[in-house]
Amino acid sequence: MSLRLRNINCKLAFCKTIADECQPFLQRFQTSKPMTPYLFEAVEKLLRYLMNRCVKPDLMKCTGPKLLSIDTKKSENLILSKNIDIGFATKRLLGETAITVTERQKLEFIHECRSMLTTMIAKLQEKSPLKQKAVRGLSSLDPCVIQHSPQLAQKRFSFLLEELNHANIINDVLAENAKKEYLHFCNLKKSELQEIFRPCDQFSDEVGLDTIYGSFLIGEANYKHLWEVIKICLVLSHGNATVEGGFSVNKSLLVENMHEKTVIAQRHIHDEIQEAGGIKNIHISKKMLDYVRGARKRYHEYLEMKKQERSEEDKKKAEKRKLDIQVKDLEGKRKKLMMATEEKREAIEVELQELKKKQASLY
Fold this sequence. Notes:
Layout: H1 3-28, H2 36-52, H3 88-95, H4 103-127, H5 133-138, H6 143-148, H7 150-166, H8 172-186, H9 190-197, H10 209-217, H11 224-235, H12 241-244, H13 260-276, H14 286-293, H15 295-361
Helix pairs in contact: 1-2, 1-3, 7-8, 8-11, 10-11
Coiled coil: 313-358
Keywords: Coiled coil
């Protein structure tokens, strides 16, 4: 095998090692579920994994947003190139080149791997949601955080309420009441919390956090303010499966240029099918068949209505343009008239002053 081909195999093996770690993160968030509460922990985990391969261990003791302050472009923050973790497959392939590749060439290759890692880490740090206080606050809705670190969850929920309040999304009273109710929720017995979050599986699209929280909080007077805040937060879903599905590993269909009504209708249909337990459990009634038969007629009526609306809108725009021209023309005439009047006034004023001077000289 040629030196160049062996080098390519090593590079591909290293890239695959990194891609295999990033792929679960991309798959996990390629869903229609509300995923924002999981974002903080997931991004931190991914960033830490990459940094552990090349950053000095004593710098990796920090957590969360502090990881963003580690400058991977500075060599003093990095371990020696020969100690970089390039993965088992890459090490094995690199070892097989011992006869044809010198130690210097191996070190150059490992240095290239380190350069790739540091560039990737720098980009993640630059675009990282860990910078956002709201993302850290949203992690307070992560079931794992609530069950295993209730005090941390309460602190982060306070961050979240502050951000929502400062953005005028919630008022002071709602923030205070939601904070009290969240504290009460976190102080439930461990067995109760386990039962509430038992159906929750963050790696599946079966049950989302909206369903989990809704099934427990809806109708509960003791948690009505908390539910209001949670509803606002879960709308900020990081899931973008419909838009990104066409180029993701999930192989979902890419839907382009959908109008708002189409997106809403699609979501209603999806939710109804899920509620019924699958497409095979949908009852096809006579009313539904009649409605489907008339779909094309309603579609053409809708197109005609939109055509009329556009026509009326075009007429309004044309009328507006006409009025704008007339207004501009009259303003121009007024300006010219005022300038002419001002010139005449100044001429009269000059003549008057001269006459007054002559009059004064006669006394």
